[in-house]
Amino acid sequence: MAKHKRPDSLTTLQRAIGTRISWARELVMPNQSECARLLGVDASTLNKIERGDRAPSVFLIAALSNRLRVSTDFLLKGVLNGRTDEELALRLAALHPELVLQRQDMAPNTDRNTSSDTPDPPKRPDEEIH
């Protein structure tokens, strides 16, 4: 048994990682037991990870990333990368708007100094097109 209580921030992070794993798995592989079998872990282990009761190992994160076709950035930080996560990123963002899409990763290779990287200024109400 641990001598010190785990910081709440780590518990929150562990739950968030589990939630993102669950979201991605449900889109790619709805059967949790089958996913666990393909990953070489017990179904109860994957269930505990998805609930946030257990932290996944770095090796399991890598295997999940590969199997679910998402970046480790998404699994660990909740950041969707358009070039890496492609279609799954858009499907996840549609189902879970709290996710963060990285704008520069969604655009084709462009120079960062171009005007296309800066948003258009907001239009005034009298400039609306009718």
Please name the defining characteristics of this protein:
130 residues; mainly alpha; 434 Repressor (Amino-terminal Domain); two-stranded parallel sheet; 7 helices; 56% helix; globular; disordered C terminus; Cro/C1-type_HTH
Give the helix/strand layout.
Layout: H1 8-28, H2 32-39, H3 43-51, H4 58-68, H5 72-77, E1 79-80, H6 82-95, E2 100-101, H7 103-106
Parallel strand pairs: 1-2
Protein name: Helix-turn-helix transcriptional regulator
Region (Disordered): 101-130
Organism: Gluconobacter cerevisiae
Describe the protein in words.
This is Helix-turn-helix transcriptional regulator. Residues 32-75 form the HTH cro/C1-type domain. Residues 120-130 have a biased composition (Basic and acidic residues). Pfam families: HTH_3. The structure is a single chain. The protein is mainly alpha-helical and 130 residues long. The chain has a single domain, classed as lambda repressor-like DNA-binding domains (434 Repressor (Amino-terminal Domain), Orthogonal Bundle), CATH 1.10.260.40. Helices cover 56% and strands 3% of the residues. It has seven helices and two strands; from the N terminus they run H-H-H-H-H-E-H-E-H. It is globular, with a radius of gyration of 19 Å.
